[in-house]
Amino acid sequence: MKHIDLHDVAEFSSDGHVKKDIIKTPGFDSVLVCLKDGQEIPPHPEPYYVLFIVLDGEGTITAGTEKCHVKPGHAVYVERDAVRGIRCSRRMKIMGIREPHR
Q1: Cβ distance 22 to 30 under 8 Å?
Q2: Contact 52/61 with Cβ under 8 angstroms?
Q3: Structure confidence by residue, pLDDT tens digits, 26-80
Q4: Which residues contact 21 (CB under 8 A, 6 or more apart)?
Q5: 3-state secondary structure of 47
Q6: pTM greater than 0.90
Q7: What's the CA gap between 20 and 23, in Å, rounded?
Q8: Which of 13, 62, 65, 72 would be a feasible disulfide site paired with 85, CB 3.0-4.6 Å?
Q9: Ordered structural domains, the chain, with CATH
């Protein structure tokens, strides 16, 4: 068992979003993504499935051709090779759970 307090791990930067690896296993990887107001990860394709879970804050997640307004408690699933992006409107912490990189 591994216990992690994500609030202790969270880190924000004025230079851009901060992404931290949390757990890597043969079955999945998990990352914590932290963004300040107005920061964005522009929409781009990635070669893995991912589930984004919003822990804190608000913003918009692009998933394929859809844009979803998200807030704490929301989850967004994105298919492999689909476009995904995040735009923060209120300081966000997002957990990403994805296939391991091949």
Answers
A1: yes
A2: yes
A3: 999 999 999 999 999 999 999 999 999 999 999 999 998 999 999 999 999 999 9
A4: 29, 30, 31
A5: coil
A6: yes
A7: 9
A8: 62
A9: 6-98 (2.60.120.10)
